[in-house]
């Protein structure tokens, strides 16, 4: 499982549709469906129950969505903090004073 898979999975759940997520991500729908299937195979569980006209996220699928959202959020925060450090807007300055 990699970061891209988590990002794409999160978008599938947010859009409540593989085809809508594919459109938003600017990729074709079949590769996104294949990515979902590979995730399910890797985790050895069903993430989404598929029915004819709708689908339902399983408990495992909701758990993965929660963790994916946290990981992506932390990654965004890390990028922001690093950018702030590089721009001189963040960080820590330590000042020492000698007692002699």
Key terms:
mainly alpha, 100 residues, two-stranded antiparallel ribbon, elongated, Arc Repressor Mutant, subunit A, 2 strands
Structure, described:
Helix 1 (3-15) crosses helix 2 and helix 1 (3-15) packs across helix 4. The mean pLDDT is 91. Helix content is 64%, strand content 6%. It has a single domain (3-86), classed as Arc Repressor Mutant, subunit A, CATH 1.10.10. It has helices at residues 3-15, 18-25, 29-43, 59-86; strands at residues 48-50, 55-57. It is mainly alpha-helical and 100 residues long. The chain has a two-stranded antiparallel ribbon with strand order 1-2.
Number of domains: 1
Structural class: mainly alpha
Find the CATH topology: Arc Repressor Mutant, subunit A
CATH architecture: Orthogonal Bundle
CATH class: Mainly Alpha
Order of helices and strands: HHHEEH
**Largest beta-sheet characterization:** 2 strands, antiparallel
Mean pLDDT across every amino acid position: 91
Provide the gyration radius in Å.
Answer: 20 Å
- Tell me the overall shape: elongated
Strand content bin:
5-15%
- Total helices: the number is 4
Distance between the termini: 57 Å
